[in-house]
Amino acid sequence: MRHREFWALVDEVFGRVYGRTLAGDQVIGALENRTAAQAIEDGVEPRTVWHALCDALDVPQERRWGADAQRPAPPRG
């Protein structure tokens, strides 16, 4: 997963404004008590950050990949 794909999913799954707020404010233990945005800036693999964000917010599997049913889910790192 690339950075642009991560941010596109954030926008699609959570909505642009709310998603960007979550990514910047929600501290996630699985990311060593960083926000998703901090983890991305620190070089953590975007798919790892995506899974941690979705896990922390209890996003069901069927919603994690947006509206594109053909989009393959990135494997867990």
TrEMBL record:
Q: Which Pfam families does its entry note? A: DUF3046
What protein is this chain from?
DUF3046 domain-containing protein
Which organism was this protein described from? Pengzhenrongella sicca
